[in-house]
Structures are given as structure tokens and as C-alpha cells.
What we know:
Radius of gyration: 20 Å
Number of helices: 10
Largest sheet: none
Distance between the termini: 40 Å
Mean pLDDT: 86
Low-confidence stretches: 154-158
Helix content: 55-70%
Number of domains: 2
Strand content: under 5%
Number of strands: 0
Shape: globular
Amino acid sequence: MYQTNRKYITPEMRxxxxxxxxxxxxxxxxxxxxxxxxxxxxxxxxxxxNNINAKVFISFANMYNGFNxxxxxxxxxxxxxxxxxxxxxxxxxxxxxxxxxxxxxIQELYLKNNSxxxxxxxxxxxxxxxxxxxxxxxxxxIAFPYFNELLHNxxxxxxxxxxxxxxxxDYSEHHTDIESKLNDLKELLLKHVPVQNxxxxxxxxxxxxxxxxxxxxxxxxxxxxxxxxxIGKLEKSL
Length: 238
């Protein structure tokens, strides 16, 4: 969301320059578990020193810079470990930071504007947050362990019948759109719901919604465009 300079990222570029151009790169780094102290390291050096797949990191970084994701044929089984790492860490950001942050702002707004409209938004967001937590829990408990099992070709008896009872088709059918309702909230706050003397809180909520939606869109694109096709190929090969 903070992107100011649409620069295509290459391995020899300095990480510090990229962060100054687009601070959202910090969030990408956090999703990969990387330290923010980058010194004068290039993208490639940072990835190599942290055992992160540079191809995956650079592809995702360019998404944060506004470029379309490379075709799935550019990715392979060896890239899956870092792809799943990114997705799991992003779940932690959504569930433990961004959604609670927005919920706190909405509740604070309701305390200062005890109106039916704000109460409705509060209820809407609580119900939506429960839906999101169920979605993330499903992926963390069922989908990602299954993907890792496939990746390492483990004996299916180690995890009961999970390998036989679940497939990427099940994951695809369960994969819901958790971004669209964020747009409904933005619409309400920008066009319909009156708020008295609390522009600051309204701004914080709207900006946080944009930030969350921005990252969720990248997250969903990675799952649908890379992860699902790769897992499908892996299932067929095994």
C-alpha cells in the first residue's frame, strides 16, 4: 500500500533501497522470517544468508511492487517449502495483528459513537473475523501439513488416513474469498455510516482495511496461481 516507486526487483539490487522505495517490503520480509537489519546486502545475498529461495522471494517482492506474478511454470516442487513458510507466517500476521487491530478501532469507534450503524459494523466484523479464523485454522491444521507430507513423500501411515482423505481438490473447494467483505466495510465507512468528530478513527480503520486487503490479495494469488497447481502436479507424480 505504501508503494511509491514501481521498480522491478532483480537479485543484485540492495534491500535497503527497495525498502525505502516501498516500505511494504518489510511485511514481505516478515512473512519470510527475515531480520530488518539488511546493511548493504543485495537481495540475493540476503536470501542466500538466510536459506531463502531467491526466485520465490523476488517473485513475491515484485508483486508487492505492483507487478503480476510469474507463470506457475516458473515454479517447481523445490520452491514449495518457502512458499508454505510465507503463507503460514502471513496467517500469523492476519490473525494476531491486523484483524485484532481493525477490531479494536471499530470497538473504539462504537464507544464514541453509540449508534445502530456502528453497532452493525461491529457485529459484521466480529462475524467476519470468526469466518477468517476458521479459514486460517483449516489451512494450518489440515492443508499445510498435508502439503508438507506430500513434499517430503512421508509414509502415509504416520498421519493415519490424512493423505488419502484429503487432496488439493478439497482445498480448492474450501478456499473462500476472505477479501471481498473488506470492500463492503470500506464502502460503508466511506459512503454511508455517519461518524461524529472521529475522522482520525475512521481514517485508521479505512487505512488498515486497505493494508489488509492489499496483503490478502497477494496471499490469495499465490495460493491459487502457484500453490494449488504445484500441489496438483505433486499429487499426480506420487
